[in-house]
Design a protein that fits this description.
The protein is an alpha+beta fold. Helices cover 24% and strands 23% of the residues. Strands 3-4-5 form a 3-stranded antiparallel β-sheet, with no helix packed on it. Strands 1-2 form a two-stranded parallel ribbon.
């Protein structure tokens, strides 16, 4: 994957009750050791641990994360993500739109709260 030019952005919510968050931390540590250390691994893989996020999205934390812009910058311009923009999102009034609203960037005015910057592991 690395040798083919692949880029991997792993994320995990600290409030995930389905899959233990430390599983991703342990996995990323194993990848880092296998690939020859943090600099070598950071060239193609990054981990983001998300405070307050449940399993993949939702929760009290900033679960709406702009992964697409981060990946575009990394793949197209070689700018590896050090941080990602994240926000908590208010659900839309229309329940039919609820399944996709977390993936919409930029958000409509008033939908985002608790906007913050997430750092790639191990930074906090």
């Amino acid at each position: 994957f690395r040798d083919a030019g692949g880029k991997l952005l792993i994320y995990h919510g600290w409030m995930d009750s389905r899959v233990a968050p430390l599983n991703s931390v342990d996995y990323f540590g194993a990848v880092t050791r296998a690939m020859g250390g943090a600099p070598a691994t950071g060239a193609f893989a990054r981990l983001v641990m998300v405070p307050g996020m449940e399993h993949c999205w939702g929760g009290s934390g900033p679960f709406a994360i702009d992964y697409i812009s981060a990946m575009e910058a990394w793949v197209e311009r070689g700018e590896a993500p050090q941080e990602l923009r994240a926000a908590h999102r208010r659900p839309p009034v229309d329940p039919q739109a609820e399944a996709t609203f977390i993936h919409t960037f930029p958000a409509r005015p008033g939908e985002e709260t608790d906007v913050r910057t997430l750092m790639t592991w191990p930074a906090r």
